[in-house]
C-alpha cells in the first residue's frame, strides 16, 4: 500500500496536528513540502487539493482531504486498533467527551493561546513584525481563565475526556509546543495538574520524534 | 425515556444547531430557556454543566455535554437510523468528507458570514449599536472568496460532502438563515450552485419545517425585498430571539 501523503511543513502547527496522529499510529507517510515563498500554496496543483490554498492537504490513494482536524480524525479512524482508539466512537458517552474537549481546544483553548504564539514567535521570526504586547496581555488573561477550568477538569480525570488518552489531548500538542518556546511558557507552572498532563503528552515517543522535526 | 434537555436561549444559533439535529433524528427534547441578561449562564448551576459559562449545555440521562458541535455529533451518532445517518461514520471516506466541510463551516464560512449578521441585525436591532459598515464590507469580501470555493465545489456535488445530505450541510443553516434576513442576501444570486443548494436544503429538511412551524409570530418584521416563502418563518424566529 502506498504511503499517505501530507502536503506542508512539519513546523506548521496545523501540519504537525496531522503528523501527531500518523506518528502515534506508526503509519507510513510522506511529507511533501509546499513552498510558500514561491506561492506554491496558490498553485493550481495545490488548490486542487485544498481549494482555500492552505496547508495541510492530505492524500490517501484517490481520497484528497484538507482541514487539519478533519484529516487528523480520518487518520485516527483509519489506524484505530483495540489498543489505540483515540476517538472512542464505539461508546457514545466516551466519544461525546472526546468531541467536547476537541471543540474546546479548537474554539476556546487555541483562541486564547495561539495569538501568543503568533505574536511572540511567528510574526517576529517569520514576518519581521514586532510583537504586539497588548494582544499578548489580553490573550494571557483569557488563557489563565481557560487553564483554571483545565486544572479543575484534570483534578478529576487523568486526561481531558476521561481516564484515557484521546484525540482531544493530542490536538493540544502543536500550539502548546510552540507556546512553551515563548517567554510565557512558565505560565503552566501555576497550574500543576495541567503541567503534569502536558509533560505526560510530551514524554510520548511519537511526540518526542515529531518535536525534533519542529524545532528550527 | 425522559426527553433530552437543551439548556440555552431558545433561539440562539448554537442552540438551533443542536435542535436541528434532534429533529432530524426524531428525538424528543425539552429546551430549558436561559436568561443571559440575568447572567444565568454564569450561575454555579450552569457552570456545573458548562465550565466555560457558555450555552448551550445538554443532558441525556446522566450524561452532561457542552459545545454545540459535540452535542450535535452525540445526538446524530446515538440516535442515528437507517434513514438518517448524517455523520456517515460507517464509511471512512464519507465521514472524512463530512468532517472536512464541517470544519470549513467552523473556520471559513461562519467567520465570514457572522459579522454581517451581527452588524446588520443584532447590533442595530437588539443592542442599539449602529452598523459598522467597514466590518460589513470586509466580511462581504471574505464571504465572496468563500462562496467562490463553494460554487465550484457544488458544481460537482449535490451537497457538501457528496451526493448525500450530511451534518456538514446542516451546520450551515442557522447563520445562513440569519444572513438571508440582511440586505446582503442578494449576494447568493451571484453563486447559482450555492443558491440552488441552499434552496434544496430549505425545501427538504424536516428540521427546518418543524422549527418554523413552532414559531411565535415576530414582534417586529424586517421589511425588505428578500423574503422567500420557506425562509420567512425562520428569519422571524431568528429575529424574534434578538427582540425583547
Automatic annotation (TrEMBL), chain A:
The keyword Transferase applies. Residues 91-216 form the GST C-terminal domain. It catalyses: RX + glutathione = an S-substituted glutathione + a halide anion + H(+). Keywords: Transferase. It is an enzyme of class 2 (transferase). Its EC number is 2.5.1.18. SUPFAM superfamilies: GST C-terminal domain-like, Thioredoxin-like. One of its GO terms (biological process) is glutathione metabolic process. Pfam families: GST_C (PF00043), GST_N (PF02798). Transmembrane segments: none annotated. GO terms for molecular function: glutathione binding; glutathione transferase activity. InterPro entries: Glutathione-S-Trfase_C-like, Glutathione-S-Trfase_C_sf, Glutathione_S-Trfase, Glutathione_S-Trfase_N, GST_C, GST_Phi_C, Thioredoxin-like_sf. Residues 2-83 form the GST N-terminal domain. One of its GO terms (cellular component) is cytoplasm. Conjugation of reduced glutathione to a wide number of exogenous and endogenous hydrophobic electrophiles. Belongs to the GST superfamily. Phi family. This is glutathione transferase.
